[in-house]
Design goal:
single chain, 190 residues, alpha+beta, SH3 type barrels, 2 domains, 7-stranded antiparallel beta sheet, 5-stranded antiparallel beta sheet, 17% helix, DUF3727 domain-containing protein, UPF0473, DUF3727
Length: 190
Amino acid sequence: MEDDMPELEGSTVVLTDETGRQLPCFVEQTLEVEGQIFLLIMPVDAPIELFVWQSEDDEDEDEVLIDVEEEDIDPLFPTARAVLAELDLLLQRSAYTLTAAGEPPEAEEDDCFTLELSDDSDQDGEATTEEFQMLATFFHEDQQYTLCTPLEPLLFFAQQQPDGEVTLVSPEAFQSVRSQLEDQLFDVLE
């Protein structure tokens, strides 16, 4: 199995979700744990996040960015696609994330922001943050929406199945091999 690993690095694989949508990804690293091949992969196209501006409560005038849920994207998609087309980006309903084919504009400080992720916290109990580049905004039914791309690469762990199919590693499976994968990644970085 070790002989198969180098040929995967630098290649492109395709993840397919349960709806049949696909996400082409570059293989960044190939790791072996307990005889199983794991792949650290990154989408070929730029990942896109869609946020809506909402008040935290009815009396509060301060608005916060809220991630748009998967089931709410369909009515927004045509407008979002048209807005990104003005930047020469083609918005796609890919597996696991929206993506945009094309080259996003150069990130400028005024277009970048840090978002505190309220559901996630690190091992110290600190809130996790993520940095984004704002690409465009648009209105739909009196709501303001913002299209962004993360400044840090979006990485997934996938696993090569015996038949060659590449599948996303479930959160449970990832937790069971997390320390071994992290050790190997740290070894590669050294």
